[in-house]
Design goal:
single chain, mainly beta, five-stranded mixed beta sheet, 2 helices, 38% strand
Length: 81
C-alpha cells in the first residue's frame, strides 16, 4: 500500500481564512472561509481526492486538534485513533 499524502488545515491570519496545504510541496490545495465549513460532511474528504490523504487539523493557536484519514479504510491498523 502506498503512503498517503499529508495535508494540514491551518488558519491563515493574513487572509482570515482556513487553508488546506500539502505538507510535502507546501502548495495550497483549497481555502475555506471558516473551519466549520472545512470540516463539515465530507468536504475534507473531497479535497483529499480519489487517492485519499492524511489530514492534520490545527487550532487557531497552531496546536494540533486532530488527525483524520480519508478514506477511513486507509487508516493504519496500528492507529489508536
Amino acid at each position: 500500500m502506498t503512503k498517503l499524502p499529508k495535508l494540514t488545515l491551518t488558519h491563515n491570519d493574513k487572509k482570515d481564512r482556513w487553508d488546506l496545504t500539502n505538507d510535502k510541496t507546501d502548495r495550497l490545495v483549497k481555502s475555506f472561509d471558516t473551519k466549520a465549513e472545512a470540516t463539515k460532511g465530507g468536504v475534507l474528504a473531497k479535497a483529499a481526492g480519489k487517492e485519499g490523504a492524511s489530514v492534520k487539523i490545527q487550532k487557531v493557536d497552531g496546536k494540533y486538534q486532530e488527525e483524520r484519514t480519508y478514506p477511513g479504510s486507509r487508516d493504519p491498523k496500528g492507529s489508536k485513533g
